[in-house]
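Appendix C: a fully annotated inverse folding record. The material below is reproduced so that readers can follow the format used throughout the book. The structure is listed first as C-alpha cells, followed by the designed sequence.
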C-alpha cells in the first residue's frame, strides 16, 4: 500500500524548504519555521487510476501492546462532517482511541487530541472545516501540547493539503481515508516528533478487517464495500475513497450476526454504490442480491442499505427485497436529474426513461416501498426546461423525501471544467422551487399514512418535551408519540393521527391492540 509522490510542488510552494531528514520513505522538511514530515501526500492522477491489482484482506489488525496505555488519562474529540461513511469511520477511530486508553470528551478545553473527520463533497462542507480550524487555532496557541488532526475526504485533496501546510501550519496531523488503521502510529509520530505529520495514501488496494469500533445506540452501520468507480462528472468521491472494493460476504455476515447478538435492532449496510457489491470478486459469483438474501436469514429486526445507484439495481435484488422479512421497504435511489441530457453530462449512465422503468419494477414488486432520492440543481448548462424535467420526474415517481443540493464545482473533476453558465440567483430559485415541491410530496405521503398502524423503533426523547418520544418506521418516516422512557430501543405499534410535512404524530396502541396488530 503506497501512494507516495514527490511531486508536491504544483500545489505547495517548496521554495526555501530544507530537507532535514530522509528515512524509510519519510521526508522531513523545514518550511517557514515549521517541520513537516511527509510520509505520503495526495495525488489526483494516482487517485483517478483504477488498477487491476488484487485486493488483499488483512485480518491481523491489533493495537500494539505498548500503545494500549498510550492515552491513559487523556481525552479525545472527533468532529465528523459528511455522510454515514464518515460517521462510521469515526466509530472506527473512536474504537482505536479507546483501545489506546483514551477517553471521549465533549469539552474541547480538556481534550488532548482533536480530529476533524472531513467531507469534500461540496464547497460549503469544506468552508465549515476551515472555519473550525480558525477557531481551534486559538486553543492550540493556548495549549501547544494539544494534537490537532485533519482526516477524511478533504485530506485526499491535493489543494487542501497544500492549503493546510501553507496557511494552517499549527495542524499536527493530516491523514487520509485509506490510512485510518494507521492512526495509533501516526498519533505517536505527531506527539513525539513535534512536527506536522502528513500521510495520505492516494492509492487504496487493501481491506483491513477487525478494526475496533465504538458503536452507540440501537442502530449500527456496516460497511459492505469501499470506494466508487462510477466517476459521475461532478463528484469527488471516487478520488477521495478510491476504487470499489467489496468486503468478503463471510466477513459482512459475521459482523451483522455479532451485532444481532449484541442486541442491535437495525443495521444499515453502507457503500457509495451498494449495487456494485461483489463485482470485484474474481473467485465467486455473489452480488448485492445474494448478500441481502443472506441478511434476511439473520435474526435482526431491520436491515437497510444506502446508497443505490440506479444503473446496477438488478431484478434479482428487487425479487429478494420483495421477500421483505427484515429487509425494509425503503429504497434511497438518487436520480440527480430528471433530464436525460443532463444525466448524460453527469455521466450517470442511465436515462430518465430507464430510471422510471426501474421505479416501475420496484413499485410492482413492492407496492408500498418508500422511494427517496438526491437531486443536484444548477449543473453546468442546465436549462429551465431541464430543471422542470426533474420536478416532473419527482412528481411522477412520487418520491417521499429528497436531499437537494446546488451544484458545487470540485477541483479535479470533469464538470469543474465545464462552463458554469447559471447565475447564483437562478440556482437559488431552482433550489427553493424544488424544496417546495419536495415538501408538498412529503406531506402528501404523510397524509396517506393517517389512520394506519405502523411499527416504530423508538430512538429517543424529544429535546423540547421529555414525554414525547420519536422513532422511525420501516420506511424511515419520523414519528412522534407520547410514552415512557422505557420504550426507547423498543418496537411500538403506533396509529398515525396527524400528518406534518417532515414527520407524523401517532398514538401508541394499547398493549392488547399491539399484540393483535403484530399477530
Ligand atoms: N453514491 C451516492 C450516489 O451515487 O447517489 C451519492 C454519494 S454523494 C456523497 C451524496 C450526494 O451528494 C450525491 O447523490 C449528490 O446528489 C451530491 N453531490 C455529489 N457531488 C456534488 C457536487 N459536486 N455538488 C453538489 N452536490 C453533489
Ligand atoms: Fe459520486 Fe457518482 Fe460515485 Fe455516487 S456513484 S459516489 S455520485 S461518483
Ligand atoms: Fe463527503 Fe467523503 Fe462522504 S466527500 S459525502 S464524507 S464519502
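Designed amino acids, in order:
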Amino acid at each position: 500500500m503506497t501512494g507516495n509522490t514527490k511531486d508536491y510542488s504544483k500545489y505547495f510552494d517548496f521554495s526555501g524548504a530544507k530537507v532535514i531528514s530522509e528515512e524509510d520513505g519519510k521526508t522531513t522538511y523545514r518550511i517557514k519555521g515549521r517541520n513537516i514530515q511527509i510520509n505520503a501526500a495526495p495525488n489526483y492522477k494516482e487517485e483517478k487510476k483504477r488498477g487491476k491489482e488484487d485486493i488483499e484482506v488483512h485480518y491481523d489488525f491489533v493495537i500494539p501492546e505498548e500503545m494500549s496505555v498510550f492515552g491513559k488519562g487523556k481525552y479525545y474529540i472527533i468532529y465528523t462532517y459528511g455522510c454515514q461513511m464518515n460517521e462510521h469511520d469515526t466509530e472506527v477511530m473512536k474504537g482505536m482511541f479507546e483501545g489506546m486508553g483514551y477517553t471521549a470528551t465533549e469539552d474541547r478545553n480538556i481534550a488532548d487530541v482533536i480530529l476533524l473527520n472531513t467531507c469534500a463533497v461540496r464547497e460549503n462542507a469544506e468552508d465549515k472545516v476551515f472555519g473550525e480550524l480558525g477557531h481551534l487555532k486559538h486553543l492550540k496557541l493556548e495549549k501547544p501540547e494539544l494534537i490537532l488532526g485533519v482526516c477524511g475526504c478533504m485530506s485526499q485533496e491535493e489543494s487542501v493539503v497544500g492549503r493546510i501546510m501553507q496557511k494552517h501550519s499549527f495542524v499536527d496531523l493530516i491523514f487520509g481515508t485509506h490510512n485510518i488503521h494507521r492512526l495509533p502510529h501516526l498519533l505517536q509520530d505527531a506527539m513525539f516528533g513535534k512536527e506536522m505529520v502528513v500521510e495520505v495514501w492516494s492509492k487504496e488496494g487493501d481491506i483491513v478487517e477487525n478494526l475496533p469500533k465504538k458503536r452507540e445506540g440501537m442502530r449500527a452501520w456496516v460497511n459492505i464495500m469501499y470506494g466508487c468507480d462510477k466517476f459521475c462528472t461532478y463528484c469527488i468521491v471516487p478520488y477521495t475513497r478510491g476504487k470499489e472494493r467489496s468486503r468478503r460476504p463471510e466477513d459482512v455476515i459475521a459482523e451483522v450476526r455479532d451485532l444481532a447478538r449484541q442486541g442491535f435492532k437495525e443495521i444499515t449496510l453502507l457503500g457509495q454504490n451498494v449495487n456494485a457489491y461483489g463485482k470485484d470478486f474474481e473467485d465467486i459469483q455473489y452480488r448485492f442480491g445474494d448478500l441481502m438474501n443472506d441478511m434476511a436469514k439473520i435474526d435482526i429486526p431491520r436491515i437497510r442499505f444506502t446508497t443505490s445507484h440506479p444503473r446496477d439495481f438488478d431484478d434479482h435484488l428487487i425479487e429478494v427485497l420483495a421477500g421483505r422479512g427484515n429487509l425494509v421497504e425503503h429504497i434511497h435511489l438518487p436520480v440527480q436529474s430528471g433530464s436525460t441530457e443532463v444525466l448524460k453530462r453527469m455521466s450517470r449512465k442511465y436515462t430518465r426513461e430507464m430510471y422510471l422503468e426501474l421505479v416501475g419494477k420496484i413499485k410492482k414488486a413492492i407496492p408500498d416501498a418508500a422511494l427517496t432520492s438526491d437531486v443536484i440543481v444548477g449543473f453546468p448548462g442546465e436549462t429551465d426546461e431541464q430543471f422542470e424535467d426533474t420536478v416532473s420526474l419527482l412528481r411522477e415517481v412520487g418520491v417521499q423525501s429528497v436531499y437537494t443540493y446546488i451544484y458545487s464545482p470540485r477541483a479535479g473533476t470533469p464538470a469543474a471544467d465545464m462552463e458554469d453558465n447559471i447565475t447564483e440567483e437562478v440556482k437559488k430559485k431552482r433550489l427553493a422551487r424544488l424544496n417546495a415541491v419536495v415538501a408538498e410530496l412529503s406531506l402528501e405521503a404523510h397524509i396517506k399514512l393517517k389512520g394506519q398502524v405502523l411499527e416504530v423503533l423508538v430512538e429517543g426523547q424529544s429535546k423540547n418535551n421529555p414525554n414525547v418520544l420519536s422513532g422511525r418506521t420501516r420506511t424511515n418516516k419520523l414519528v412522534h408519540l407520547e410514552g415512557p422512557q422505557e420504550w426507547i430501543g423498543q418496537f411500538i405499534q403506533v396509529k398515525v393521527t396527524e400528518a406534518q410535512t417532515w414527520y407524523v404524530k401517532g398514538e401508541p396502541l394499547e398493549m392488547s391492540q399491539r399484540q393483535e396488530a403484530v399477530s
